[in-house]
Every structure is written in C-alpha cells, then in structure tokens.
Predict the structure of Flavorubredoxin.
Amino acid sequence: MHPVEIKKDVFWVGAVDYTSRDFHGYSLSPQGTTYNTYLVKDEKTVLFDTVKSNFLDTMLCRMSNVTELEKVDYIVCNHLEPDHSGCLPKLVELCKPEKIFCSPLGKRSMQAHYDTEGWPIEVVKTGDSINIGSRDIQFIETRMLHWPDSMVSYIPQDKLLICNDIFGQNISTTERFVDEVDRAVVEHDMVEYYHNIVLPFSPLVLKTLDAIAEMGIEIDMLAPDHGLIFRGKEDVQWCFDKYREFAEQAWKKRAVIIFDTMWHSTEKMAYAVAEGFESEGVPVRIMHLKTDHHSAVMTELGSASAVVFGSPTHNNGILPEVAKMLTYMKGLRPQNRIGGAFGSFGWSGECVKSLSGSLVDMGFEMPVDGVKIQFVPTHDSFKKCYEMGVELAKALKEKCGD
C-alpha cells in the first residue's frame, strides 16, 4: 500500500472503496468511492481526517511508508462524519497526537460519536492558524457545508486547500488526479455527488465561493475527502465554475418525467407527455421508479428544469415509490423548476391533487393543470397528456429565454 505524494512532503494516504454502492445509506455510489486522507511532513507531522473504519489497515500501511505512527504530532478533523473519522479512536491510541484540531461544532460532534476523555482537542475557528515549521495551516469554518462541524484547511505555502466533502465525487480508480481521468466522467460524477448531497446547501456554496474570491488566496490544488484531486489553477477554477453553475440552478431546457405504474396506464401517459415535450424541441428523459433509483433521478435533475410526476391513485393517495421519491427530492430542495402531474385512477382519483400539492410545497411553478384519466387511456386522454407536455415545454422555453 503506497502513498501518493501530491505535493512536496504532502501525501495521500487514503483508501479506495471499489465495491461501495450504497453511499451513507441513502444515495447510490455506482462508481464506488474513496476516503481521502492527507499527511503533511514538516517540523510537525499532520494528518488530515481519516478513513472509514474498515479501511484502517490500508490507511496505516500507507502512512507507515511515510512516517512512523508515533511521529504524527497533530490530527486535523475537518469533518466528523464516520467515513472520515471512523479510525480516529484507533489513531489517537496509536499516534498519541499532541493536539487534535477541529471546529467548535466539530468538538461537539466528536464527543457525541466517541469517548474523547483525555483527548488533546483544540478548537479552532475561522481566521485561526497554526505553524508547523515551514508551513502554516489556516482554518476556515464552512458550517452546514454539509454538516455543522465542517471546515476546510488552507496551506498557503503549498497553495493547497484540503476541503473535506465539498468539491468531491464518488469514484474509485487508481488515478488520484482529475486530469488523469476523462473529463466527462468527472463532470458526471460531480453532478451526481452535488445533486444528492450538496444541493440543499447551494446558497452556502455561493457564499463560500464568494468568500474564497474575496480572501484573495491562491489555490492551485483542491484536495477533497472523496474522489479525485484538482491540481493546477485551471482545473481548480473549472471546479469552482462548475460548483457555481450547480448552485445557481439556472433554467435548463430539458425535462424529466418520473413515474410508477400499476397496470401500465400511467406508464402510457408518461410516454404521451414526453411526445409533447419532443414536439416542442425539449429533450426529455423518462424514469420509471421501479428501475431508476432515486439518486439517479436527482442526478438527472442536474440538467432538467421541468419535472413531471406520474402515479396512479393508490389507497386514496399515490404509489409508495413515488411518495419516497418526492420525500427525497423535497429534502434536497431543488430550485428554479416547473412541475406537472398526471396519473390514472379507478375510483376516487386523488393522485394528481396529491402530486401537485407535493410539487407546490417544494416551490415548483405549476403552469398547467394536471391530467388524470380513469382506468385505461383513450385516444382523447392521450391527446390531453400530449398537450400537457406541449404546454409545459412552452413554459420551460419561456423561462429559458428560448
């Protein structure tokens, strides 16, 4: 297990999880993931974050190729989520660090997760810095980006920002740097990661990007806790630009139709709605919730500003997979979207009212009435679905200035 020197005396000593598909119990990680840990050798040796507990041996093996464990002086905890702090108790036992640095809320989180009695915890806030020899480490709190404890660490002498979960991607590969991997793959994985994890914090992303710009600090490397490292000013700026684009959620001329179905009537309606979008030149993706995972739907939302839900009426409501999708999406708080609703029913027909209410609660604009049909769609009901797609497409194009 070899470390990777990412800058002079700065080493990646993390782990690659090639088999992970379940990220944090709520999202998919189809490409696996990484748990990035960084070690800086100076007059003081500093370890930044750890790895998921079952990768302890991998991390220790890489570290041992750089330094003896007892020579680790400081541990910096930028983020206390267990995939980054899971090995902390064992490291404290093995390394006996002089100090463990964390944010004020990081201390609270650390104490809630572990028995920290006797640990040399030192709280740092935005603007605090420490000297480790030829380098300084400056701390910047990034509360709720994406946990209350989150902070980033900046080393000016290396122009290096160790940035915990922000700017990350779920990807497992032997490459460590963005410029070694196909750019389209990186961008897709960034979209997937952002829209399933960071999206609710988009206003904070914009503030953080502005704050970094106002601070005037030079950054030529972004080292996140998941995924590939951005090196060189151009790639760092590319990452910042992508994050600003994701956070601003500008209108995009693309639609996604999300549905579940019992006896295929609602499914047939979905295809008719899609025909309406296509007739207006708006690309559309149809996603069936029995085959498309909710995190894949959120990834699709990264490029779609029209979101149309379909469900038959079930027990005076909607089908469970649709309800689950709506709950997941609501928590991620997408902005700047128009919505639509459709569905079939047998007796009571509450599906469209229920779907529309959920979309309105999320702040979606609903420019057209929903369509519901009883039992099996006819030629006339297909026409209504088609026309709904046409009207939604026209409304979206107006938003896009098309």
The CA atoms of residues 72 and 111 lie 21 Å apart. The first strand starts at residue 4 and ends at 7. The longest helix spans residues 379-399.
